[in-house]
Structures are given as C-alpha cells and as structure tokens.
Amino acid sequence: MTKSITVNQRSYRFPEAPVVIVCIDGSEPDYMERAVASGDMPWLAGMLNHGSDLRADCVVPSFTNPNNLSIVTGQPPRVHGICGNFFYDPARDAEVMMNDPALLRAPTLFPAFRNAGAKIAIVTAKDKLRRLLGHGLNMAPEQVVCFSSEKADQATLPENGIDDAVEMVGMPVPDVYSAELSEFVFAAGVKLMERMRPDLMYLSTTDYIQHKHAPGSEGANAFYRMMDGYLSSLDAAGAILVLTADHGMNAKHREDGTPDVLYLQSELDGFLGKAKARTILPITDPYVVHHGALGSYATVYLPKDADFAAVAEFIEGLEGVERVLTREEAAEAFELPTDRIGELVVVSTKHRVIGTSPENHDLSGLTVPLRSHGGVSEQRVPLIVNRKVQGLEGRSLRNFDAFDIALNHAEARRASAAE
Question: Could you tell me which of 114, 387, 122, 124 has the C-alpha nearest to residue 241?
C-alpha cells in the first residue's frame, strides 16, 4: 500500500488509524475554552491533558467556502481559487455563487487517497459545500460517502455513496437554521465510523449557533456540550481527531443592539456617482437569515477611468475601516487569486460590518444582536489534536495544516491521561 501521497505539493503519510478532521464553523477559541471552564465539555477537558492545544490562523476572507477548501486542499485560495462564498465574474458580467466545482483550481486530498485505497467519508451541514468537497470522487458504498445534513433525505448511492443516511443517523432532516443541522453531522460521523471505519473523515458544521450566541452563553455551551459527547465517541473508536474552525466570530452591533454597518456601495455612489463602482460581499450565500449578508470584508470593482488611489483614500477615511488594499496587495497579504477580486479589498474593524446599500439587506431575520465574521479580527482559530504532536516547532500554523498535522505529526498511539 502507498506510504506517502503527494497532493498540491504537500506529502502525507497514509493513515495508520482513522483520521477525523472537524471544521467547527465559526468557532473562535473562546467558545471551547468557556465550555471547558463551565464543565460542559468533560471529554475535551480531559483530553487536553494528553493531547495538543494549538492555535492557527484561518484564511482571509474569513468565510466558510475559502477556508473549508483550504483545509481539504492544504493550500490557500491563491492555489485552489475559492476566495469567497460569492464573487463577481467580469468575463460573464455576473455575480456568482462559489459552490460550483468547475471553479476549483486544485484537487482536494480525497481523490488521491481514494486512489491509494483509502476509505473516505465526508459529511457537511450545508449542501453548498458538498459538491466542492466531493469533487473528483467516484462514490461507492462502504468506500466513499459524501452527503449533507441539509439534504440527507435526498442522498443516493450514485451521487452520495449512501441512500439510507436518515435511517442510519436516526434523526429527521433538521431545519437549516438550527443546532440540529450540525448535530446531524456529528451523529453521522459516529455512525459512519461504526459502519465503514473510514481512513479519512471530514466533518463540517454550520455556524448558526455562533451567529446567535456568544461564548459562555447557555445556548453556546449547550451546543458544545452536545458536540463533546460525539467527539468522545470518535476518540473512543481510536480516531486521530483534529478540531479546527473556518473562522472566528465577533459581535458586530451597537450598544442598542442594532447592526453596526458601513454601507459601502452607498458611500461610493455618493463619491463616484450612482453605480460607478460595484461592491461585492463574499459572505453572501443562500443562508443569510442569521447574518443578513453582512460581514467584515468586501471587494470593490472600479471603472477604468477612476482614480484608484483617491477612491482608496476616501474609503480609508470612512468610520470603521481597518484596511484598504489594492488587488495586488490583497493577493499578497491574504494569498488570493488576483483575477477573482476587485481593484480594492476593504476590511472593517472588529465590531463593524460592511454592507452595500440599506435597501439590499433584509435584516428581518436578525432576532438577536448581530454576530458575524470575514475580517482579520476573526482569523485566529483553534487547532486541537487528541494526540501529542511533534516536529511543529517554530511553524506558524494555519487551519489548512490540519491534515498535515494529523497524518505527519500526530502520534499514532493515543496516550492515556496519566501519561
């Protein structure tokens, strides 16, 4: 059997034990720290005594699609091409969701490991990610399984490698705006570990709870308490577990609870003229109820005759703007593909979000004060391993090092708490 597999210029050992990478959507480190302190994550609290509690930086923009694809390719968006949930395609003059596998410019790890004989299981909460994560895989029952909680009842053998996902998990298909959508992911992971014992498993949740509940709140602690039980089961099955996140989360509201928004398109319309510039919000996806398509990162397309430096200076002077970068500066700083971002990239401060114009955002679904992400302030994420790791000294870790750490640096044998 192949001992080393190279994907996207990174080499990985074939797993000696099942490897489970968990991307906990929106999970800034404080969520688990507070849940451990309150006694809501007893397995994690005990595991930290003999595992590895690390930190890493996620990809900016700190959104779901770029970071999940970075984790499963082992590379930043400059390589795999997915630089948002949503982007503007100048060639088509169209604003496009980045959930089409045709937009991928690099393979995930999964096809290469599948070709080397590995069993692969992928479960994601939202179906927007499922096609990207499963790209290049030929589904085969007991060999390759890839489905979403959102559409578990529609899973078929040819498309997903499984046709009884709901019956296997024993839960009804949850509402897309619920904690249960993520619980279904964990429950499926445990059942798949029992049924097929995959060599590589990737579990990706939704950040509905993190958008609604701050770290240490009862709503957050209940979610992490649920998660802890499933993680304990995966650990007991002998899996090498790596827990990370696609991004953090911060409060983005004023003292009165209303969203603190910079409506950038409106500002640019006043400065340049109506619709001369185009503001793109890459947080946009089909699930905007809990964030209103408001995040802390935007990219701006300008007319060819615009004075780019003058526009950048104008934006820098707006309240709540942390950084304005040219296309080239942003591509260098955030490792982004230059052809999929605008002439300018704008990042807001920690507690502010960027919108286009008020009439373009339906905020009726924001039943609690806004929490969101997208900027540099949401870049720090957990990187927790249920094994001791070695050979990482001096490295600046990224969330997309998760597979490298699990396969190349984690001890194959699980230490006991006494050790």
Answer: 387
